[in-house]
Amino acid sequence: MDLFYSTCLLVCICFPAIANAKLQVTIKEPSGPIVEGSDVILQCLDEGQDMSHVRFQMYHKWLRSWFNIDTTTSFRCWYYSFNVSRDNGELLLRVKQMYKWHAGPYRCVSNGTDGQLISKNITVPLQYLNGISISEPGSVFSRYMRDPRVVRVMRGKDVEVKCCASSSEPPMYQWKRKGNEWIYPNSNLKIVKITPEQGGIYTCTATHPSLPSLTQSKSVLIEVVEEPLSSLQLSDMNLILAIAIPAGVLFLVIIGIIAYKCKAKRNEKGMMLLDNQVSKTPIWKGSDSSIPYCVTDSVPLVM
After folding, report:
1. pTM for this entry
2. Is 34 exposed, middle or buried (0-12, 13-18, 19+ CB in 10 A)?
3. Which residues cross the membrane (predicted)?
4. Could you read off the pLDDT of 69-81 as tens digits, one per residue?
């Protein structure tokens, strides 16, 4: 009995693994590195079996669930660039201009006579480099300032700017100064005790390590001044925050006052209705008419 139970348990555990191995998702095109924004074709393979019962599925990270990819999917408005075809017995998924939110994971699911079979998940390895920015250490909002960037520093002081980019692999950085062959291979540019001669336009270039054709650059003007900068001088972002935060607080206060007055008015109206009901008594039982209870007639109208 124990041997039979052990055998059944082994078959139940091993069978899904063998069945799942039949289905697989492969990248048909392109054959080389896949750059973000490229067209991609995925193919579902099932060892020459009938593909009519097989569907592509993609995991939705926001909903935390899998959904079928087809022309009638309810997510068609979000994934309009998907196209599923079943030409010549092949099940293909064409994704036009694939970006990070299209990268997967994907899988194939079969609901044939053998039950439900599920392939292994696959995520398309996209290569990308974008979102380069220049910021000043210690300044939270400096990277969101509009271009061209200008950094003013007093003569003899230290200045430091940082270059950062979003990439599928850690990018390589280098700084160049306009009109000079000087190159500094680092993401951080720090100049100690700066002089007016060291001011100028500095350009940061980020390069993808595996695909040198993926590069992005951004420049910053370092301006050396002779007089101390005013402590009251506000950057564009700080100025926006200085206006937006008080305006937001004032708006919330106004909304709170309006809500309080509306609630007080509703309570006052409810109290008036209650007073009217208490201050009146019916002429006789079941009558819709009433008279104020303060009438001094002690003789009832109806006995």
Report:
1. 0.61
2. buried
3. 239-260
4. 875 555 555 566 7
